[in-house]
Amino acid sequence: MGIDDERKLEPSDEELLRGIGDGHTGALRALYDRHAPWVLLRLSRRCSDPQLVEEVVQDTFVGVWKGARRYRGQGPVAAWVWGIAIRRLVDRLRGRARLPQLLRERGAEPSAEDLVLLGVEYGDLAGAINGLSPELRAVLQATVLDGLSMREAGQLLGIPTGTVKSRLMRARRELREALA
Fold first, then answer.
1. In this structure, are 14 and 40 located in the same domain?
2. How confident is the model at residue 14 (pLDDT cuts 50, 70, 90)?
3. How high does pLDDT run on average in the chain?
């Protein structure tokens, strides 16, 4: 049996999600093993609190377990998992207006991303973002806050990459005007 034959034995992400939707914990373990390392790494680049990042990774896969049947098959499973992960992180950071102080108390410095997320949530930018249309806000969140590529954002949102680009340009223009 060659390497290519061995790869064919591994279920696809979509097959694993169907298994998770049917309640198979082994499918969840396989999907977790496949995706948790890169989710952990990407979240670590957005939050300097390793304990919080680990909790968010666990919450992400609880969300995968509970929501596997809601996956619509549009775009890669990895983009769907990332969407859950980044929303869980943002949810955890909400209400943490004292985040820099809390992180320092734990012996960690807040990352630039932590500070930006706080500014988005509590600063002038929050009002400007909330003033955007839902379509523009979704593209801005997927690309800027979630860190998805244009292609990934398009797949996640179910729109063409060109539409992502044009909406992002409009969102940035409207934000500049609102903050001027």
1. yes
2. very high
3. 80
Instruction: Output the domain CATH number for residue 159.
Output: 1.10.10.10
Q: Which domain holds residue 136?
A: 123-180
Residue 30 near residue 11, CB atoms below 8 Å: yes
Mean pLDDT of 30-41: 94
In a domain, 116, yes or no: no
Confidence band for 104, pLDDT divided at 50, 70 and 90: low
